[in-house]
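Kindly review this record before class:
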Amino acid sequence: MIVGQGLAGTLVGLEAERRGRDFVVVDEGAGDTATRAAAGLFNPLTGPRFTPDGKGWEKLVPFYRELEQRLGTELVHLLPLVRPLTGTKVGPEAFPQSAPGWSAELSSEKDAVRIEGGGWVDLPRLVDAARTRWLASGPLEPRRFEEAEGRGQTVIWCGGVADFTSSTWTSVPGVQGRWQAVRGDVLTVRIPGFNLDHGEVGPRFLLPLGAQRFRWGATHESDVDDQTFRPDARNALEGWLSDRLNGKSFEVLDHRWGVRPASRIRVPLIVTHPDEPGWTLFNGFGGRGVALVPRTLSQLPWD
């Protein structure tokens, strides 16, 4: 049984399907709101030191390509990513760098790094395609999960912030004090006459979607569990974008927000419940779930 159908719950369900395992996904909403607000970015170099994101990066795009084949929809958008060196803790001498699946070199102006091997995954489309598939075939039950029904069963908890605030997990060793709620707001905008052949990353991202549409964000508010419309967040995003465009006009097409759980210990929280050995918390991926969830699926109790 899988609780929640955000990114983690969706990928756990698809992995169970691939392994030929019987499963049920219980989700009372229409997929996690934080997943729907997320840009779906995957970037092999993160943090102020451009830290390489572990081993096995070359397996990431094939993982999502296989899901495209199974679900019959386009998910992966490969895109060079450009990140300025300003404000980071490395200099031009650190580049070029490369590893299987990615490479990074200085831009022609020598003030930024151009990264190949990144891009974004269309997370709403992924969640919706799996949801439609499972509603038709039966494994998805759109309802609230009742804890009593999971007693003595194998349950993978992928319910986002709700898991951590529930009495089930809030005081469990290995969970208590090790997570935080992080709110992010993102805009979809149209910028007439503006084009990019790459995505911009750094303090904020600007991703070209085609037809002069772009995704711009994000705010990052730690320890904030406010899931209502915040005009101050939208105003901040619009102000930052106006500065980025030097006052060039743009039109806001969509404003989305979500609150996701992030680990305070810099690794996902994959924890077995002390009173229910069949229950596993699979959560706390923060803003790097697109890359982290696939590589940690093998840690779940499949046997």
